[in-house]
TrEMBL record:
Extent of Basic and acidic residues compositional bias: 92-108, 126-136
Region (Disordered): 90-136
Domain Putative zinc-finger: from-to ranges: 11-44
Low complexity bias (residue ranges): 109-122
Protein species of origin: Streptomyces celluloflavus
Descriptive protein name: Mycothiol system anti-sigma-R factor
InterPro entries: Anit_sigma_mycothiol_RsrA, Znf_put
Length: 136
């Protein structure tokens, strides 16, 4: 895309790197050149405004999802392995995920079995006190 006006940066280059600019992942010098282009170029400014609005909408609507608590540590651990030069195969990652899923399922089954036992006993299956003491 080009608006037809001469710019230091071509419109297509600006639009190709728009998300880097929006996410502030661009070096300061490049960012300033992009800002100058966007200020001068109405088609790029319109695209920039639309993309910025979409990012805000996505953040507002989807930014509250909870991430599993151990996810960050797993990701950081794998990054450290890769940086250390150790090979992390995709198969080993899948195997690890399958083992962790099986552990979660066993824990959920155990929890639901404990709840069922508590209901059948008329009380808490984990409570070793005599029934009279539980009634108090």
């Amino acid at each position: 895309m080009s608006c037809g006006d001469p710019h230091d940066k071509d419109c297509s280059e600006v639009l190709d790197h728009l998300y880097e600019y929006l996410d502030r992942e661009m070096p300061a010098g490049e960012s300033e050149k992009f800002q100058v282009h966007i200020d001068e170029c109405s088609p790029c400014l319109a695209t920039y405004g639309l993309e910025q609005a979409v990012k805000k909408l996505v953040k507002r609507c989807c930014g509250h999802d909870d991430v599993p608590s151990d996810l960050r540590s797993k990701v950081m651990g794998r990054i450290e392995l890769i940086q250390a030069g150790e090979v992390v195969s995709e198969a080993s990652v899948r195997d690890q995920a399958a083992r962790e899923q099986a552990q979660r399922e066993r824990a959920a089954d155990a929890a639901s079995s404990g709840s069922a036992a508590a209901c059948a006993d008329g009380g808490d299956a984990g409570d070793a006190r005599p029934e009279a003491a539980r009634a108090e």
